[in-house]
Amino acid sequence: MADAEKLICWDSQDIFAIGVRLKTPSGQFHANTEEPVEIDTGYGGDVLVPWEVYVDLELYGWEYPEEYWSVGISVSGEKFKMPLSRGVLVVPRLGHEFNVRIDTFENNEQFLIGRGFIRRHKILLDGPGSRVCFFAEAD
């Protein structure tokens, strides 16, 4: 039987989100439990984290060289650099960990999973079912 898959779902009433834990390459977690993080097709990167999480986890220790950083543009047209770091996105319900690129910017409060991550995985946004489902290889 080729490529058997299982479907793991999260209820999503207001936003489409999956439960994750963010981990540094050295193994430090940002939270003790799974946290729902919004799936955002408008964000092009893998994962965007709040500035406070970036600093608390000392993700600057795993940053890519500055030439790889994105440049954000504020509503007023101001440009700003977005540090880019290595990290691990853990999806406890799947029992899998995924290497990701993590963006942030000063004073950011959003935690998002973007198209960079979505394009590498099968994820179903089920509006009528009010859920998000992740297709994973069956054990």
What does this structure look like?
- The protein has 139 residues and is mainly beta.
- It has a single domain, classed as Cathepsin D, subunit A, domain 1 (Beta Barrel), CATH 2.40.70.10.
- It is built from 2 helices and 11 strands, in the order ββββαβββββαββ.
- It has helices at 51-56, 115-118, and strands at residues 5-11, 17-23, 35-39, 47-48, 70-73, 79-82, 84-91, 96-103, 112-113, 122-126, 131-137.
- The strands form 3 sheets. It has a 6-stranded mixed beta barrel. It has a 3-stranded antiparallel sheet with strand order 1-11-10, with no helix packed on it. Strands 5-6 form a two-stranded antiparallel sheet.
- A hairpin with a 5-residue loop joins β5 (70-73) and β6 (79-82).
- The protein is globular, with a radius of gyration of 16 Å.
- It starts with a strand and ends with a strand.
Characteristic key phrases:
mainly beta; 6-stranded mixed barrel; single chain; 11 strands; 3-stranded antiparallel sheet; 139 residues; globular; Cathepsin D, subunit A, domain 1
SSE topology sketch:
Layout: E1 5-11, E2 17-23, E3 35-39, E4 47-48, H1 51-56, E5 70-73, E6 79-82, E7 84-91, E8 96-103, E9 112-113, H2 115-118, E10 122-126, E11 131-137
Parallel strand pairs: 3-9, 4-8
Antiparallel strand pairs: 1-11, 2-3, 2-7, 4-9, 5-6, 7-8, 10-11
Question: Nutshell version of this structure?
Answer:
This protein has 2 helices and 11 strands, in the order ββββαβββββαββ.
